[in-house]
TrEMBL record:
Positions annotated to bind substrate: 109, 135-137, 192-193, 197, 267, 294, 452, 458
Residues forming the catalytic site: 189 (proton acceptor), 196 (proton donor)
Lineage: Bacteria, Bacillati, Actinomycetota, Actinomycetes, Micrococcales
Binding site for NADP(+): 16-21, 40-42, 81-83, 109
Name of protein: 6-phosphogluconate dehydrogenase, decarboxylating
The organism of origin for this protein: Lysinibacter cavernae
């Protein structure tokens, strides 16, 4: 390894060679024109990678100094280490050795506010810092992920072609775009993950309804999903759902889904999405219900305590299976439109709050390949923003409005069916409530505002007059105009 050190031959480097880093390094090395330097805190990982993949011709180093010296200028290094303290430690090491104009990329799952902080500190030294969201898991890292870089436009000139060389390709376009400055890339990646939570929860609710209401077996539901995957719901998540449902457990001969413990875990990006959407005042109810559904599933003690509590006295069985399956498909599509509409709304609000210029159509295009939520549907979102870049709510774009209009009766029947049979469908029903809330001519918010004025003199506006008003609730209850 020392042979290669100090020769400055690599145009790109990767620090952190666990599953994501080593796959990304191999992906980079497989692309024409790239020579890839690699470094990992524990040298064993580096040795394993170089031994197992001689074809990659990695320039491997066992010290961070040799690694830095092996990079040609401007030096560009992608950090793929554990998010948090590990990332800060590596940034410190690189910042001490890099020179102005060099580029540090954090490809881990950092919280965007950490990225904003890091970008500020690193760019003060003249070194570029780019937080890049990378989606697609280990397979995506190896074969082509969807990449969401932030950072300066200047650093993207060097970085863009390198990232484009390894990104997934969808309809001839690489799934990477300069999302915006500083933390914009990690913010968009966070929302991507939030949407992923909602999409998965909606699919899980569809499965539960088909299984428990319509009495389909997991294998039959796999066939239904495989069929759906040929139409407007075509997506990676629908495709893998069919695969999971078809899988039979070798130990018991049962469907695998029946032997998997029904407690869903998470790594926290869904929680981040909801926390930030709350702070931005954007209702991402589909994502929030998905996060809560995972939390509920992971409280076995509460579930055991509530297990004997009654459900509906006489659940109504599904009589027309085919019609019910079609209703569920439509409810799933309508709810999915809501989830994406809410997610894009959160990106728009985040861009406003943090002064980013984010092209929402470009974001939808880079999600068409490589990432977990890749789907045909994203083309429709790209079309909607191409037609109307300042669309206030995605669901009102003509294509989506028409899809919801034609699905809403089915959607309502499915939510009713879930309610009367006692099957929880929180994402389906909250999406429908969001839709009904948004389209309502009058909302009971008027009453809430009246209550607020009663106990806290929080004032209200009137539908018929300009100005701000307060009723003297504890006096003679006349109304006064506030200045
Ligand atoms: N797994 C996924 O599907 C996925 C998808 C997208 C993004 N990501 C993100 O990609 C990053 C890498 O993920 P991963 O699953 O490959 O690895 P990981 O398990 O998150 O992290 C392990 C790597 O971090 C290094 N590391 C930890 N603390 C360090 C420190 N203080 N100084 C230097 N190196 C340190 C480890 O080095 P040692 O070998 O020396 O311990 C090892 O290379 C993470 O930020 C993750 O969130 C993961």
């Amino acid at each position: 390894m020392a042979d290669n050190a100090n020769t400055a031959t690599a145009n790109i480097g990767v620090v952190g060679l666990a599953v994501m880093g080593s796959n990304l390094a191999r992906n980079l090395a497989s692309r024409e024109g790239n020579t890839v330097a690699v470094f990992n805190r524990s040298p064993e990982r580096t040795r394993t990678l170089t031994t197992e993949h001689p074809e990659a011709n990695f320039v491997a180093s066992e010290t961070i100094e040799d690694f830095v010296n092996s990079l040609s200028k401007p030096r560009t290094a992608i950090i793929m280490v554990q998010a948090g303290a590990g990332t800060d430690a590596v940034i410190d090491q690189l910042t001490n050795l890099f020179e102005p104009g060099d580029i540090i990329v954090d490809g881990g799952n950092a919280l965007f506010t950490d990225t904003i902080r890091r970008e500020k500190a690193v760019s003060a030294t003249g070194i570029h810092f780019v937080g890049a969201g990378i989606s697609g898991g280990e397979e995506g890292a190896l074969k082509g992920p969807s990449i969401m870089p932030g950072g300066s436009a200047e650093s993207y000139k060097t970085l863009g072609p390198i990232l484009a060389s390894i990104a997934a390709v969808a309809e001839g376009e690489p799934c990477v775009t300069h999302v915006g400055t500083d933390g914009a890339g990690h913010f968009v990646k966070m929302i991507h993950n939030g949407i992923e939570y909602a999409d998965m929860q909606l699919i899980a609710e569809a499965y539960d309804l088909l299984r428990r209401n319509a009495g389909l077996t997991p294998a039959e539901i796999a066939d239904v999903f495989a069929e759906w995957n040929k139409g407007e719901l075509e997506s990676y998540l629908i495709e893998i759902t069919a695969e999971v449902l078809r899988q039979v457990d070798a130990k018991t001969g049962k469907p695998l889904v029946d032997v998997i413990l029904d407690q869903a875990g998470s790594k926290g990006t869904g929680v981040w999405t909801v926390q930030n959407a709350l702070a931005l005042g954007v209702p991402v109810s589909g994502i929030a219900e998905a996060v809560f559904a995972r939390s509920l599933s992971s409280h076995p003690e509460q579930r055991a305590a509530a297990a004997g509590m009654p459900g509906p006295a006489s659940p109504v069985a599904v009589t027309d299976r085919e019609a019910f399956i079609e209703d569920v498909r439509r409810a799933l599509y309508a709810s999915k439109i809501i989830a994406y509409s809410q997610g894009f709304d959160a990106i728009r609000a985040g861009a406003e709050e943090f002064n980013w210029t984010i092209d929402l159509g470009a974001v939808s295009r880079i999600w068409r390949g490589g990432c977990i939520i890749r789907a045909q549907f994203l083309n429709r979102i790209a079309d909607a923003y191409a037609e109307s870049p300042n669309l206030s709510a995605l669901l009102t774009a003509p294509y989506f409005a028409e899809a919801i209009t034609s699905s809403q009766e089915a959607w309502r029947r499915v939510v009713v069916s879930a309610t009367v049979t006692g099957i929880p469908a929180p994402a389906f029903s909250s999406s429908l409530a969001y839709y009904d809330g948004l389209r309502a001519e009058r909302l009971p918010a008027a009453l809430v505002q009246g209550q607020r004025d009663f106990f806290g003199a929080h004032t209200y506006g009137r539908v018929d007059l300009p100005g701000v008003f307060h009723t003297l609730w504890s006096g003679d209850r006349t109304e006064i105009e506030m200045n």
